[in-house]
Amino acid sequence: MAHDHHDHHNDHEHGDHHAPHDHGDIDWAEMAPHLEAQAELYTPLYRQAMAWLAREVTDPGLVVDVGSGPGVVSCLFAETFPGARVVAADGAAPLLERARARAERLGFGDRFGTLAGDLPAALADLDYPADLMWASQSLHHLPDQRAALAALGGHLAPGGTLAILEGGLPARFLPRDIGFGRPGLQARIRAVEEDAFAEMRADLPDSVAETEDWPAMLTTAGLKHTGTRSFLLDLPAPVSEAARDYVTTSLSRLRERIGERLDADDLATLDRLLDPADEAGVHRRQDLFVLVAHTVYTAVRPV
């Protein structure tokens, strides 16, 4: 899977991480640092999710990160499961080069592989079935999510686990009343994002409308739903420079993507927030925070 993300949502808060792989206009070399920085910032959330998964999945032989991007999370899997071989799979080969370099740098190179190509079809090139497969905010970019789940499940070993990260709660960065403009800016931006996301899904070739009941979809795909849990990223004010950069980049990308859909007052407020010279902008204000929840659903392939 490629990425806008999300943002890997926050190309739409649904994933800066993973945008459609057919976006040929995306410069992955340019995007990679943003994707890496976001995943690094979200590492506390991913570590919580992995600790939860590790209680269900013991000593997996092969872990596959489907829609891995530049491999930050793939390397966290290598760290969490020191006996596992990890494969990072993505539609964007330049991001996989970053993933491989990261694994080498962290000392996981001897048990780390990459797989480039359209997903989930490229998974046919796996040498053997996966004991754990992770798909973070990549499924919602595929036209037929139910068929994609079935395809992923087909690459699991009997008794293997599929973990998908989808949904949760959108990131919040600012108080409801920021001292100028109409209060509730982020909620209104979110409503516009939801409409844009629905249009993205509808515009996918052969898109299949689906009630987003992930346990039901997993069951229909022939898997046994085993758990659902949400994980919180809570970075209160005052934030680190890395968190401030993430907020600034996320809002800048939102401005580019949906700015013209906002009303004039909200657009003016957003532009003031993005002005590096403005004391009340996100580059300087002291009340910035990052608060987001991601939900993980697990399912097992029947033995």
UniProtKB/TrEMBL annotation:
**Entry keywords, A to Z:** Methyltransferase, Transferase
Whether Transferase counts among this entry's keywords is yes
Question: Which ranges carry the Methyltransferase domain?
Answer: 63-160
Biological process (GO) annotations held by this record are:
methylation
Keyword Amino-acid biosynthesis applies: no
Transmembrane regions listed in the UniProt entry: none
Q: Annotated Gene Ontology MF terms?
A: methyltransferase activity
- Renumbered to this chain, region (Disordered) spans 1-25
Q: Name the PANTHER family on file.
A: 2-METHOXY-6-POLYPRENYL-1,4-BENZOQUINOL METHYLASE, MITOCHONDRIAL, METHYLTRANSFERASE
Which protein is depicted? Class I SAM-dependent methyltransferase
